[in-house]
Amino acid sequence: MADQELLRVVVVRKGKVKPTEFRLREGEIGLSLFRAADPPGVEAIVAAVRAAGKQGELGVAEIPTVVFRSLGLRLVRTPGGTPDPAVNALHVEARPSRWQQLVLWVRRRSVHEWFNTHAVPHLAAAAKLIE
């Protein structure tokens, strides 16, 4: 997955993407992303995420892989939750390393809290909205 962009399906409000689109909810340990690949393409990814239940005006934010690595996040292939197997095959999560998770556990700090304060500002700044 080196030297490529990762895609995040986001809700677009007034032509912009808010940093909240990159936040983790309580209990989550990774940010859901898709590897850029053709086929199935961006349109299929958006359609599959919409079919899985995400609502609103959806768009795709592109983030360089190097940003995740610079934040100490690892990219883990995980099963996607959409009804499209081709799109699910592209699914990855950006997660803190196992070492970072252990440090957070020792410090009694949740992964989502750490991720939202440490990673979200950088991800939001690096994200570029595409068609």
Provide a descriptive summary of the structure in words.
- It is a single chain.
- By secondary structure, this protein is of the alpha+beta class.
- The protein has one domain.
- 34% of the residues lie in helices and 25% in strands.
- The chain contains 6 helices and 6 strands, in the order E-E-H-E-H-E-H-E-H-H-H-E.
- It has helices spanning 42-51, 65-70, 85-88, 98-106, 111-118, 120-126; strands at residues 5-11, 31-35, 58-64, 73-77, 91-96, 128-130.
- A 6-stranded antiparallel sheet has the order 4-5-2-1-3-6, sandwiched between helices.
- The mean pLDDT is 92.
Q: What is the averaged pLDDT score?
A: 92
Class from helix and strand fractions: alpha+beta
Radius of gyration: 14 Å
Q: What's the story with the biggest beta sheet?
A: 6 strands, antiparallel
The H-and-E topology, N to C, reads as EEHEHEHEHHHE
Oligomer: single chain
Helical content class: 25-40%
Task: State the low-pLDDT regions, or none.
Answer: none
Number of strands: 6
N-C termini distance: 22 Å
Helix count from the secondary structure assignment? 6
Characterize the overall form.
globular
What's the gist of this structure?
This protein is an alpha+beta fold and 131 residues long. The chain has helices at residues 42-51, 65-70, 85-88, 98-106, 111-118, 120-126, and strands at residues 5-11, 31-35, 58-64, 73-77, 91-96, 128-130.
